[in-house]
Write a structure and sequence with these properties.
The complex is a heterodimer of chains A (296) and B (268). Chain A has 296 residues and is mainly α. Chain A has helices at residues 2-36, 65-72, 74-108, 111-126, 129-140, 145-152, 166-190, 194-202, 207-218, 220-235, 239-244, 252-262, 266-295; strands at residues 39-40, 47-48, 51-54, 57-60. In chain A, the strands form two sheets. In chain A, strands 1-2 form a two-stranded antiparallel ribbon. Chain A has a two-stranded antiparallel ribbon with strand order 3-4. The radius of gyration of chain A is 25 Å and the shape is globular. The two termini of chain A are 47 Å apart. The chains are: A mainly alpha (296), B mainly alpha (268).
């Protein structure tokens, strides 16, 4: 009796979450593939499912029209894809540049200051990105705080265009993803053995040499982890290009939204989503491969 | 502790903190602006906060967001705990690889993809067996619980793995049964991580715009959806006031949550 309940409990612990995630995470992805292979039509819902269980049995008639459409209008779809990768790549780079000194400072400060600084990093991470992007608009607008200051100080006469440029996108990305870069960097820098640094200093190494030959190589795992944590969500970002970007800063997340809500072309939206997943899987597989290399 | 952080590094770090905090601080200051014009300071006033009380659309949305946040965070925490137990305590079981895949993939999935795919499933389910009929609070709740449980699992898993096993073993040696050992030994030990996991799932749900936009129906707009449509119309002191209140509330929750986690880590 006792072991029966134990076995039952064990089964529930495993299968409850497995069932939930299977139904509400895995199945939706399968259905999305299905829709991406379906024919678009003017009806409710606006597609004719490729895979159907109807009165006349199971039918599966996939069409690749939606992918062909993306290929045909590649300027409209491929350009945002390239743009997503480009903007996410440089955002990751800028985040790394700002995050490294911050992580270093936090890792090298005493325990109580460390706690305060870490909470200061965590707080913006959990507050809504939407609201922080809104706050940024208030700063960057033509009649925003920065332009007002510049005009008041006599540096410029007409407001500088900052919104709807790459600059506004990068500012938004840094504001949103900086904490994600800092945390893994901090984790690898805080583990750094002081005696190694002291030994190098005693042997006459200059600060820059210590950084280049010891600190940077030893913090590489943190750098890679941080870059992945920023790049992956940045590629699929919706809020930032929607609020801060113009037509030149189109990204895939926004294209999915537009195709779905404005053009009501669900199959194409699903096909773009699958392309976006493919873009994201590449760096993850690469990181896994690197991990295996370093172990062996 | 080597205290010689170069001055340049310190200055760059302070600039970084400036980037994180200046926009929000400016917004908070301007939420007390008397004038309607956003960038012209016309004196101190709390009138925009008072006006929030009479905005029915906003209050309804707030109520829905809180309802969804509470219920989805609770489901997330319970299921997150189950996932954490399965991974940390059961060495081998059928489906382990699949569970680790579906419990970590939502962490990296773009919100637009998660939202779109879930909506497509809900529509297919409704067409096949009539549930869920239409989309509303319940579908948003399910969607939020689904990605929330993966974050909750990560938080609880770390604590469960680092937990001191000797107390538990002692209790078992003295004849304690599994449910008793779990409720009176394991649960209190990992309680801070459970609270932290709940708070994090709640904030994730409360802040989410993209997934909620996809799986919401008419009349089930959450607070971020209402705010997003207002932002599209431009910057206004009223949004400054809502945003200030929301950020302060979430920050307070995060501060409680992170101090719970950091304090435990500090004791080790």
């Amino acid at each position: 009796m006792h072991s029966f309940f134990q076995k039952l409990g064990r089964l529930l612990v495993i299968w409850l979450p497995l069932g939930w995630l299977g139904i509400f995470f895995m199945l939706p992805l399968v259905e999305m593939v299905n829709v991406s292979l379906s024919e678009a039509r003017r009806a409710v819902p606006p597609y004719n499912p490729a895979f159907q269980i109807g009165k006349d049995g199971i039918s599966f008639q996939p069409v690749v029209d939606n992918y062909l459409l993306i290929y045909e209008y590649w300027e409209d779809y491929l350009w945002p894809a390239v743009n997503s990768v480009r903007l996410a790549f440089f955002s990751t780079l800028y985040c790394l540049l700002f995050a490294y000194p911050m992580a270093w400072w936090i890792a090298r400060s005493n325990k109580s200051l460390q706690h305060i600084l870490l909470v200061l990093i965590l707080m913006p991470f959990w507050t809504s990105s939407l609201l922080r992007m809104y706050a940024l608009i208030g700063l960057l607008n033509p009649n925003g705080v920065i332009n007002d200051f510049l005009i008041w100080a006599g540096i410029t006469v007409t407001p500088i265009q900052m919104m709807q440029t790459d600059f506004s996108i990068y500012s938004g990305m840094i504001l949103t993803y900086l904490p994600l870069m800092i945390l893994p960097l901090y984790a690898s820098l805080v583990r750094l053995d002081n005696s190694v640094l002291e030994a190098a200093a005693d042997l006459g190494a200059k600060n820059w040499d210590i950084f280049r030959t010891i600190i940077l190589p030893l913090s590489m795992p943190g750098v890679i982890a941080g870059c992945l944590l920023v790049f992956i969500p940045a590629v699929g970002e919706f809020v930032i290009p929607a609020l801060l970007g113009g037509p030149e800063q189109l990204m895939l997340g926004k294209v999915i939204w537009t195709e779905f809500f404005r053009n009501r072309d669900w199959p194409v939206a699903a096909a773009i989503a699958i392309i976006l997943i493919a873009i994201i899987i590449l760096p993850i597989v690469y990181a896994r491969y690197q991990d295996k290399e370093s172990i062996s | 502790m080597r205290s010689t952080v170069p001055l340049l590094v310190k200055l760059l770090a302070i600039a970084g903190f400036g980037i994180l905090y200046i926009p929000v601080m400016m917004m908070m200051i301007y939420s007390f602006n008397r004038g309607k014009l956003v960038s012209v300071w016309a004196g101190f006033s709390t009138k925009w906060y008072k006006e929030l009380w009479y905005d029915d659309v906003l209050l309804t949305a707030l109520y829905k967001s809180l309802l969804i946040g509470f219920s989805s965070a609770t489901i997330s925490t319970i299921f997150g705990l189950l996932i954490a137990i399965a991974f940390v305590r059961f060495a081998h079981f059928r489906g382990r690889l699949f569970l680790s895949l579906v419990a970590s993939a939502p962490l990296v999935m773009p919100e637009a993809v998660t939202g779109l795919s879930m909506l497509l499933l809900f529509i297919a389910m409704e067409a096949s067996f009539g549930w869920p009929s239409g989309r509303g609070v319940d579908t948003i709740m399910i969607a939020h619980a689904t990605f929330g449980m993966c974050f909750a699992a990560v938080v609880i898993q770390t604590r469960l793995r680092d937990m001191d096993k000797s107390l538990e073993e002692a209790a078992r040696d003295l004849g304690g049964r599994q449910p008793f050992v779990f409720l009176s030994i394991i649960l209190p030990l990992i309680l801070p991580s459970i609270i932290a996991a709940w708070l994090l799932s709640f904030t994730l749900s409360f802040d989410d715009l993209v997934i909620a936009s996809f799986v919401s129906g008419p009349g089930s707009s959450t607070l971020p959806i209402v705010i997003f449509s207002k932002i599209r119309l431009g910057v206004s002191p009223e949004i400054n006031a809502i945003a200030t209140l929301m950020i302060l509330t979430i920050s307070a929750l995060v501060m409680i949550g992170s101090f719970l986690v950091l304090r435990r880590d500090g004791k080790k």
